[in-house]
Design a protein that fits this description.
The protein has about 325 residues and is of the alpha+beta class. The protein has two domains: about 130 residues, Roll (Nuclear Transport Factor 2, Chain: A), CATH 3.10.450.50; about 120 residues, Nuclear Transport Factor 2, Chain: A (Roll), CATH 3.10.450. The chain has eight helices and 14 strands. A hairpin with a 5-residue loop joins strand 8 and strand 9. The chain is globular and about 45 Å long.
């Protein structure tokens, strides 16, 4: 993980009411009033603003370059997960890794932002980050910070605050002129039994069902079938590909998936691990493999992170990010 934005957005609902003057409970209106409807719908939770998320994202980046892992203890969900190459990392491993980071940064900027709704309590924030500097990772190696990158963070409401459940970043590259090797330093592998267990995670009971839907999505992509893709995706579908291209809405995503840039013979989805972010939202990490070409180049395996929402008892894809296997 390079300088990243893993932040909890905390909303402070400052509202209180005080009664003054006469005792209204004994007024004529109170004696004749009907009992309150205890089954009335709850107020709709306020959605986060993109400005608020981005402001806190900047604070998270500042904490990262300083190696201040304490900031992330409360910012990350206990179910937080991210990919570093082929390694699946949980909260404990990520916090420990950040503690060993030291950076020297001259210039950095976050722009080209967008936010997409997954459900009322789950959002994805994406932006481009540009850096000029170096970081020394837990392995002691100093390397140039990858730049520019396209980042995405999944935010989940937890009581009166927001916590990150996933974060990923892809180097923005020209698909017709790919770099020979990744420039990001590898994260330190989990070195205790507890950390390894947290990183591996136990698959949620919904894993098999979600892998089946993910396989269906890949098959529909292979066939350039827009109708099938629309049937298994939400209205707010968004996507980030392995080249750092981002698509903030369903129309653009399906158009990209059904274009003529890829010719695929077969696909497979394996290594699925699902975790419940809420009763109706699940995060699936997986490995996707395609036999064919995109942009005239042979397709390799990718690691994916997909967020699904249960709609009328069926799981629908709301966001997905494909990351190179490095």
């Amino acid at each position: 993980m390079k300088p990243a934005s893993l932040l909890t957005l905390t909303f402070i609902a400052g509202a209180f009411f005080a009664a003054r003057g006469v005792d209204a409970r004994n007024s004529p209106a109170a004696r004749t009033a009907k009992p309150a409807n205890t089954n009335a719908p709850k107020p709709i939770a306020e959605a986060p603003t993109i400005d608020a998320l981005m402001a806190l994202d900047k604070q998270a980046n500042e904490a990262y370059v300083k190696g201040d892992s304490r900031v992330f203890e409360s910012l990350l969900s206990e179910k937080f997960v991210m990919r570093d190459g082929s390694q699946r990392m949980g909260k404990a491993a990520v916090v420990k890794m950040i503690a060993g980071v030291k950076c020297e940064v001259r210039i950095w900027n976050l722009d080209e932002r967008w936010m997409a709704k997954i459900d009322a309590d789950t959002y994805v924030l994406s932006y481009r980050s540009t850096w000029d500097g170096t970081c020394t990772g837990p392995d002691g190696k100093s390397m140039k910070i990858p730049s520019p990158t396209r980042a995405a963070t999944i935010w989940v409401r937890s009581g009166d605050k927001w916590q990150a459940a996933f974060h990923g970043e892809n180097l923005i590259v020209d698909p017709k002129n790919l770099p020979k090797a990744a420039t990001a330093p590898p994260a330190k592998p989990a070195d205790t039994k507890d950390e390894a267990k947290a990183a591996a995670a136990s698959p949620d009971p919904s894993t098999d069902a979600l892998v089946a839907v993910e396989q269906f999505v890949w098959e529909a992509w292979k066939a350039h079938d827009a109708k099938k893709l629309a049937d298994v995706t939400t209205n707010d579908l968004s996507f980030i590909d392995i080249f750092g291209n981002s698509f903030a809405n369903r129309a653009d995503t399906i158009r990209a998936w059904t274009g003529a840039i890829c010719e695929i013979k077969s696909v497979s989805v394996t290594d699925g691990v699902a975790s419940a972010l809420s009763p109706t939202v699940e995060l699936l990490t997986h490995k996707g493999t395609a036999d064919g070409t995109c942009y005239g180049q042979k397709v390799g395996a990718v690691h994916g992170a997909s967020v699904y929402v249960k709609d009328d008892k069926a799981w629908k894809l709301a966001f997905t990010m494909n990351m190179p296997t490095m």
